[in-house]
Design goal:
alpha/beta; D-Maltodextrin-Binding Protein, domain 2; 2 domains; 9-stranded mixed sheet; 9 strands; about 45% helix; about 15% strand
């Protein structure tokens, strides 16, 4: 005797099978589209957003990569400076961009760590972006106008203590590495003086060279060419090691201000939801550029420290950001620094 399912149950089973089949087909279509998109990517210019003004350290780095990435990817690379509000305006531009790999951001410790603690933003520095790759970074140095009456870090500290009501120190913006470098200098020397927050390292450098401000800190690559031309003074490297490219510059520890350490790391991020295959293509292209001996030498000449190959994965960049957030957010919040 034949056995039959109740009609209601039979209909339910058939409906479930149809749903599963539809989901399988849909998934296959999505994967197919994603794969096809990755196969044709890139087919138009890629924009790298720099969330700071032209001329600063974060602006220099993507411009070094642009020409070589253009050759690797076979498409034009456009650098777009979107400055203001400590880098948050440019970051917002990328967070809201279509996640297709044609808009990425060159960010740093400021944009992806400190801003998350001090700024009220319309985006989340972790969940609204896809890490692509860790880029070269470098230590900060402390620099001053060429006619400042101090010739080394010890003399600078003495001058600061005697002229607190006259000192003007520039930063690349609220919440930037330079801002925290200035605050740390005040704490270590027990001084208080005005801080002038610019819309990026470029404008701050211009005013330093013009003698409109007294001193600032930023990545070494920004200042070395001007130091060598006698256009400004560099007193110390803010790290526990010297720069191989400028061994004549002492560390802050050697120069009499131990613990005065400030460094910056950089990276490329894409909007959240950018296909993994596209992120992988971008990552591979940047890795090839980093492996080029001519590029390596150019970066070393500019005092950049190149990340090891195992640090050049999206996962490695995500971990660095996570670790830095866990380290710095409690410190920043305890200091009650806000950017809004």
């Amino acid at each position: 005797m034949a056995w039959e399912l109740p009609s209601g149950r039979l209909k339910k089973d058939l409906k479930m099978k149809s749903l599963i089949s539809a989901l399988v087909v849909a998934l296959a279509c999505v994967l197919g589209v994603s794969s096809a998109f990755a196969d044709t990517y890139p087919s138009k210019p890629i924009t790298i957003v720099v969330p700071f003004a032209p001329g600063g350290a974060t602006d220099v780095l993507p411009r070094l990569f642009a020409e070589r990435l253009q050759a690797e990817l076979g498409t034009p690379i456009v650098i777009e400076n979107v400055s203001g509000a400590g880098g948050t305006i440019g970051m917002q531009r990328v967070a809201r961009a279509t996640p297709d790999g044609y808009t990425i951001v060159c960010g740093n410790w400021t944009t992806f760590v400190s801003n998350g603690a001090i700024m009220k933003t319309s985006y989340d520095v972790v969940t609204d972006f896809e890490p692509v790759i860790l880029l070269p970074g470098n230590s900060h140095v402390i620099a001053a106008r060429k006619d400042l009456p101090a010739n080394n870090l010890a003399e600078l500290v003495t001058w600061l203590k005697a002229n607190q009501d006259k000192v003007s120190m520039a930063t690349a913006g609220v919440g930037t590495g330079g801002h925290f470098g200035a605050v740390l200098l005040q704490n270590l020397t027990h001084t208080e003086f005005p801080l002038v927050h610019y819309r990026g390292g470029g404008p701050a450098l211009a005013d330093l060279l013009a003698g409109h401000i007294d001193l600032t800190t930023n990545q070494a690559t920004v200042f070395l060419p001007y130091m060598r031309n006698g256009m400004l003074k560099v007193f110390a490297v803010l790290a526990d090691h010297k720069l191989a490219q400028a061994p004549e510059i002492p560390t802050a520890d050697e120069a009499g201000l131990p613990g005065y350490h400030v460094s910056n790391w950089n990276g490329f991020w894409a909007p959240k939801g950018t296909p993994k295959d596209v992120v992988a293509k971008l990552n591979a292209a940047v890795m090839k550029v980093l492996a080029d001996p001519a590029m390596t030498q150019k970066l070393l000449n500019l005092t950049y420290e190149i990340p090891s190959v195992d640090q050049q994965t999206p996962a490695a960049l995500a971990k660095i950001q996570k670790d830095e957030i866990e380290k710095w957010w409690p410190i920043i919040k305890a200091a009650k620094i806000t950017g809004n």
